């Protein structure tokens, strides 16, 4: 039987951070990962440059049954704290858009940095290691698995969400949480592309690869959400940042509304002015000045004004076109699921956890961090910031 002060299961963003912090505080720490390499999602994130945080981290940009829960950890370990760590390791970054910070070096440099912090703390990292059972053992825990029996005083579950099973995602934390009687918020794919039924899908598939700045909205009243970013047509439907963002707020059988001319303040006035100034111009040519030609052609065809000049368009036709361009109502058939979702919404209900330490309230010594918890960030570095912050909080408390 091996003995540790702290065992962390899952060497992803949150687990690496937590293990390093706990080790540096003098604990004997074991970090268990079932993949052969740590930090798989960090490595592929941000197109290989890891969008590691956001300059504008706010609690409203996280979805959770308790919208206040994440505030404590996020305020105690900020985006600036992570940047300080990066700078100390000689890493640099740049802002792409909307406060999103990307590493100038490859994403692997972020994993190397976290592993270096783990080494500083003397953390033992076990790769390719399976844990088959977890049970209470007095005031600690006993783990059984490929490393034999392990006893630990503190156990941290950090196996992330269900997204991208082929990269090693598992429901391990959710299962162990259930075993300990903890409440779970149903898990769902989030930050995920939409699929559509046949007609819409055929229209979208023909435009596959076309991208357009748009605003996409869903919900009503207090639950209304709107994002202004790029939208991407795909073979199966819609993707791109605007769609990924809204997918986290969409509920099945409801509509999304797309404005493909979000940059134009007054579309009816713009179209009327174009008709006056350039009556001989084809409607598709006018639209093509604000969007890719393929999209302009497809929309005018859909509106049955393909080839029509602006002069021939009645006020009614312009109103119909405006509606189609600015208030395109679509009913997604579903999403591309966990295979394509960037994150998992839901997870261990925050009601079970101490918001300062991530310790399970009625299971002393058990901690749950990262994406496995019911805290889901927007696209743009928020999910890593939650992983760093919750990992850090548990690392100080174990
Ligand atoms: P994470 O998934 O990082 O780590 C969990 C670890 O546990 C994994 O190493 C896994 O193999 C391991 N594990 C699972 N089951 C196990 C078991 N039974 N035993 C042992 N180990 C087990 N976010 C962001 O902020 N900016 C970005 O740029 C991106 N980009 C991005 C791209 C893609 C393609 C995806 C899929 C996701 C992102 N994300 C993102 C989201 C981000 O990757 C995610 O939210 C964090 O990695 C979550 O950190 P965790 O440590 O909680 O889980």
Automatic annotation (TrEMBL):
RsdA/BaiN/AoA(So)-like insert domain sequence ranges: 188-343
InterPro entries: BaiN-like, BaiN-like_dom_sf, FAD/NAD-bd_sf, RsdA/BaiN/AoA(So)-like_dom, RsdA/BaiN/AoA(So)_Rossmann
Keywords (A to Z) from UniProt: FAD, Flavoprotein
Entry annotated with the keyword Cell inner membrane: no
Residues of the RsdA/BaiN/AoA(So)-like Rossmann fold-like domain: 5-396
Keyword Flavoprotein assigned: yes
Pfam families in alphabetical order: HI0933_like, HI0933_like_1st
Superkingdom of the organism of origin: Bacteria
Names of required cofactors: FAD
Name of the protein this chain belongs to: Aminoacetone oxidase family FAD-binding enzyme
Species of origin: Eilatimonas milleporae
Upper classification of the organism: Bacteria, Pseudomonadati, Pseudomonadota, Alphaproteobacteria, Kordiimonadales
């Amino acid at each position: 039987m091996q003995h540790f002060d702290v065992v962390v299961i899952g060497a992803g963003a949150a687990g690496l951070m937590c293990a390093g912090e706990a080790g540096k505080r003098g604990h004997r720490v074991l970090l268990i990962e079932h993949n052969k390499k740590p930090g798989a999602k960090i490595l592929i994130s941000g197109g290989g440059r890891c969008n590691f945080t956001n300059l504008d981290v706010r609690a409203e940009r996280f979805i959770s049954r308790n919208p206040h829960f994440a505030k404590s950890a996020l305020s105690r370990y900020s985006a600036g704290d992570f940047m300080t760590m990066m700078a100390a390791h000689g890493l640099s970054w740049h802002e792409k858009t909307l406060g999103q910070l990307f590493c100038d070096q490859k994403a692997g440099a972020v994993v190397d940095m976290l592993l270096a912090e783990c080494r500083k703390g003397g953390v033992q990292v076990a790769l390719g290691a399976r844990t088959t059972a977890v049970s209470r053992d007095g005031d600690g825990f006993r783990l059984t698995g490929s490393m034999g029996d392990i006893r630990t005083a503190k156990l941290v579950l950090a196996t992330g969400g269900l997204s991208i099973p082929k990269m090693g995602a598992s429901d391990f934390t959710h299962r162990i949480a259930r075993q300990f009687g903890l409440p779970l918020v149903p898990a769902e794919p989030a930050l995920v592309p939409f699929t559509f039924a046949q007609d819409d899908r055929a229209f979208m598939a023909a435009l596959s690869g076309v991208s357009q700045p748009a605003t996409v909205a869903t919900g009503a009243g207090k639950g209304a959400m709107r994002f202004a970013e790029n939208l991407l047509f795909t073979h199966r439907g819609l993707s791109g940042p605007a769609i990924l963002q809204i997918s986290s707020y969409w509920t099945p059988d409801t509509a999304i509304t797309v404005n493909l001319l979000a940059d134009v303040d007054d579309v009816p006035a713009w179209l009327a002015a174009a008709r006056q100034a350039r009556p001989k111009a084809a409607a598709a040519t006018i639209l093509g000045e604000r969007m890719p030609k393929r999209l302009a052609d497809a929309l005018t065809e859909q509106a049955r004004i393909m080839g029509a000049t602006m002069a021939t368009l009645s006020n009614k036709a312009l109103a119909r076109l405006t509606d189609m361009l600015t208030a395109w109502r679509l009913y997604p058939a579903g999403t591309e699921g966990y295979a394509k979702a960037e994150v998992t919404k839901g997870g261990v209900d925050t009601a079970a956890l101490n918001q300062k330490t991530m310790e399970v309230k009625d299971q002393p010594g058990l901690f749950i961090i990262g994406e496995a918890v019911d805290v889901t960030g927007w696209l743009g570095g928020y999910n890593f910031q939650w992983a760093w912050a919750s990992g850090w909080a548990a690392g100080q408390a174990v």
